[in-house]
């Protein structure tokens, strides 16, 4: 019962955050911001709200925020977090053996990379909110145009240096945990951006080939079964090959 109440409370808090962040998307659309700016407004608003919630929810609110962030990445803090997660999992009848086998992966690929996962989630939310709010408002007022087709999104070319820099930093980080954390989070965040870009290119190709809706759904289902890096590589290569031949359009069309 306690687990259910906690889950409902978490869902309620997340719902509140999503609604509050969506308000920034509404304001950006009404003020005539370009699509990319609208998405960033929604993502940024949600990111700030999440940071505020995490800062308020610290064990010691009086502790310096920078110190709290440093403590989060210590082994002692991880062990404490893992113990709490294990207790919650055991209550849901997850075996202790499975939890023990999952511990190292959780630490390396989720716990240490949580900032970048939250950043990527905020970007996806901003994109989703842009399309949802545009769909509604464009039917209520002429001040808000219809959303730009997903197949036409173009990622700013300079962002590729962020991905390259994070990869290079990962190679030279060596035993430095700080550099390794920075590189890992950078790879996840920029990788997520180029995965979205890759899916945009896929959507363009499906539209160009006029694939039936059924085949498109099946193709997307197959793609999500593959490592997402496969789609991300397509987004990175688009920086140089411009698969859609749309970079010569006006800047506003490029989001």
Could you characterize the architecture of this molecule?
- This protein starts with a helix and ends in a 14-residue tail after the last helix.
- It has ten helices and no strands.
- By secondary structure, it is mainly alpha-helical.
- Determine the structural class based on helices, strands and strand pairing: mainly alpha
Strand content: under 5%
Largest β sheet strand count, sense and barrel closure? none
Whole-number radius of gyration?
Answer: 21 Å
Q: Report mean pLDDT, rounded to a whole number.
A: 90
Order of helices and strands: HHHHHHHHHH
Could you name the ranges where pLDDT drops below 50 across 5 or more consecutive residues?
A: 250-255
Basic shape = globular
The residue fraction in helices comes out at over 70%
Strand element count: 0
* CA distance, first residue to last residue: 47 Å
Tell me the number of helical segments per DSSP (H or I, 4 or more residues long): 10
Labels describing this entry:
255 residues; mainly alpha; 75% helix
Brief description of this entry?
The chain is mainly alpha-helical.
Task: Record the SSE blueprint.
Layout lengths: L1 H29 L4 H22 L8 H8 L2 H17 L4 H16 L2 H24 L21 H14 L4 H33 L3 H13 L2 H14 L14
Helix pairs in contact: 1-2, 1-6, 2-6, 4-5, 6-8, 7-8, 8-10
């Amino acid at each position: 019962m306690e687990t259910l109440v906690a889950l409902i409370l978490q869902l309620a808090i997340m719902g509140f955050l999503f609604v509050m962040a969506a308000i920034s998307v509404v304001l950006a659309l009404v003020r005539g911001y370009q699509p990319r700016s609208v998405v960033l407004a929604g993502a940024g608003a949600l990111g700030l709200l999440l940071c505020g919630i995490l800062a308020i929810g610290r064990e010691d609110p009086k502790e310096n925020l920078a110190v709290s962030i440093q403590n989060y990445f210590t082994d002692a803090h991880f062990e404490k977090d893992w113990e709490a997660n294990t207790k919650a999992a055991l209550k849901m009848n997850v075996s202790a053996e499975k939890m023990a086998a999952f511990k190292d992966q959780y630490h390396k690929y989720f716990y240490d990379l949580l900032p970048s996962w939250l950043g990527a989630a905020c970007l996806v939310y901003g994109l989703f909110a842009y399309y949802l709010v545009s769909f509604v408002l464009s039917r209520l007022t002429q001040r808000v145009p219809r959303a730009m087709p997903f197949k036409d999104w173009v990622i700013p070319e300079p962002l590729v240096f962020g991905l390259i820099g994070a990869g290079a930093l990962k190679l030279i980080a060596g035993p430095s945990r700080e550099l390794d954390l920075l590189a890992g989070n950078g790879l996840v965040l920029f990788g997520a951006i180029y995965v979205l870009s890759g899916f945009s290119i896929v959507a363009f190709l499906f539209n160009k080939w006029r694939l039936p809706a059924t085949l498109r759904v099946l193709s997307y289902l197959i793609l999500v079964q593959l490592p997402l890096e496969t789609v991300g590589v397509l987004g990175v290569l688009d920086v140089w090959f411009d698969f859609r031949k749309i970079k010569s359009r006006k800047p506003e069309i490029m989001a």
